[in-house]
Design goal:
By secondary structure, this protein is an alpha/beta fold. It contains 17 helices and 16 strands. It has a seven-stranded mixed beta sheet, sandwiched between helices. The protein is globular and about 85 Å long. The N and C termini lie far apart (73 Å).
């Protein structure tokens, strides 16, 4: 029994390898063609549509409370759109693509043929537990693979909903689900998949990569990091505050591409902070009902966030809490009121760690050069949010602060564009998913060279004398 989340229904670790072998044997016996893939995705769409109310209830239970509208935006809308996008483009993605073979191999023809990999493993996180499980699953199915899914143990009700949803759509030798905690997750990551996708923290990502290494399993990592919002002096401070508020306090900041900290020109800091506070009051009132404000996932994360604020206060930082909440209620409901921390030093805990919660550090810069140097010195983040109306300034920010993805003059929205690959860079991840990028991740682009019955290569063989010698020397120029 889990004290916070009800009964657990863990998969025995001894059952993981046999399940993988069942998936692989079925795939080797009959690999899904385009018709099967399309039918699978249409059944998944129908089952998902029928189950969204139950999904919403499961997620809300796991979080203690989560905004119903945030579920609609981040889970329901994204998953439906991803399935529809794959169905609309599957035939085009799967077509062989002609490439140049070069005149020296004329009349040969070259092409790339997408080939499914086999059995794909997917380890999903708790913060968007359905979106980040089903979006990569859609790509895996579209590419012709079988899949094994491990949802997060921090959302056990949602994990069981996912298991039941997928069991109603797929036979268990095409898609399987493993439930359980860290021990199951570690054993799952060590299985010899044909590809493994992990979404979660950088610390756990390192462990997943190490577990996959003995099998030489190709790994895609979607991690996180400290995503900056850089507000330039030419951009209206009230507009920047409104859009950064959305990127910070959506899902109570528990978002891998959420704004981790803001950089603003020093003369406008106070105006920016006042605008942030006004946004919080307009969006959430006094948190009396807090129906639109999501709770922190568990007590450990709540305590971690409180420790970040305590560390900042201990360093003399001003910590603003525009919305006051009774401490007893806050702890009981895991309702962590939004916090704004002014100019924390670089060695503060909340500037060294990914915050993953509703705390926004606001640092100032005297010159944009200083702000960019600060952001560029940190590990490369999953997202970057420049706010400027000047194209030259934008180009400079993008060039000097490498990141996995960028939304300009807003936050989060690049995630919802299915033709934009979603992935990290360096410490924020490797590889990409979404749309065709996800299809390509779970495919092998098989190079094929086709040679006709008669070809110039027939002459390139010993003895290398006379015309053959001259031809080789010519080709080698």
């Amino acid at each position: 029994m889990d004290a916070d989340h009800g009964p657990r229904d863990d998969t025995p670790t001894a059952a993981l390898a046999p399940a993988l072998e069942r998936l692989r044997a079925a795939w080797l016996a009959w690999r899904p063609g385009l018709a099967q893939r399309g039918a699978d995705l249409r059944r998944l769409r129908a089952a998902f549509d029928a189950g969204t109310e139950a999904m919403d209830a499961a997620i809300r239970d796991d979080f203690g409370h989560r905004s119903r509208h945030e579920n609609l935006l981040s889970e329901t809308m994204i998953v439906r759109a991803e399935i529809d996008h794959a169905l609309a483009n599957l035939g085009r993605w799967n077509r062989p693509r002609r490439v140049r073979s070069g005149w020296k191999l004329w009349p040969a023809r070259a092409e790339l043929r997408p080939q499914p990999l086999g059995v794909v493993g997917i380890i999903a996180p708790w913060n968007y537990p359905v979106n980040l499980a089903l979006v990569p699953l859609v790509s895996a199915i579209a590419a012709g693979n079988h899949a094994y899914l491990k949802p997060s143990e921090h959302v056990p009700r949602t994990a069981r909903w996912l298991r039941d949803l997928l069991a109603g759509v797929f036979p268990d030798d095409r898609v399987a689900v493993a439930l359980g905690g860290a021990d199951v997750g570690a054993a799952f990551a060590a299985l010899p998949f044909d590809h493994l996708l992990f979404t979660g923290s950088t610390a756990v990502g390192r462990k997943v990569l190490a577990a996959a290494a003995p099998n030489l399993t190709p790994v895609t990592l979607e991690l996180g990091g400290k995503a900056p919002a850089i507000v330039c002096a030419d951009f209206p401070v009230d507009v920047a505050a409104a859009r950064i508020a959305g990127g910070k306090w959506f899902n109570a900041g528990q978002t891998c591409i959420g704004v981790d900290y803001a950089l603003v020109d020093a003369p406008r800091r106070d105006a920016f902070v006042a605008a942030l506070a006004a946004q919080l009051r307009a969006r959430y009132g006094d948190l009396g009902a807090a129906d639109d404000y999501t709770r922190i996932i568990d007590d450990a994360h709540f305590a971690r966030l409180q420790a970040l604020l305590d560390d900042a206060r201990g360093r003399g930082c001003d910590v603003l809490r525009p919305l006051a909440v009774d401490p007893g209620r806050a702890a009981r409901e895991r309702l962590f009121a939004p916090a704004i921390v002014l100019d924390p030093p670089a060695d503060a805990a909340l500037m060294r760690e990914e915050i993953f919660g509703p705390i926004l550090p606001v640092r100032t810069y005297a010159r944009l050069d200083d702000g960019l140097a600060f952001a560029a010195a940190l590990p490369r983040p999953l997202a970057l949010y420049p706010f400027t109306r000047d194209d030259a300034t934008l180009a400079r920010i993008i060039a000097e602060v490498p990141a996995g993805g960028v939304t300009v003059n807003d936050t989060l929205l690049h995630f919802s564009v299915h033709d934009l690959p979603f992935g990290g860079i360096g410490p924020s991840g490797m590889g990409a998913i979404h749309g065709k990028a996800g299809f390509d991740t779970f495919s092998h682009a098989l190079p094929v060279l086709r040679q006709p019955l008669r070809a110039a290569s027939d002459f390139l063989r010993p003895p290398y004398r006379g015309r053959v010698d001259r031809l080789v020397r010519f080709l080698a120029k």
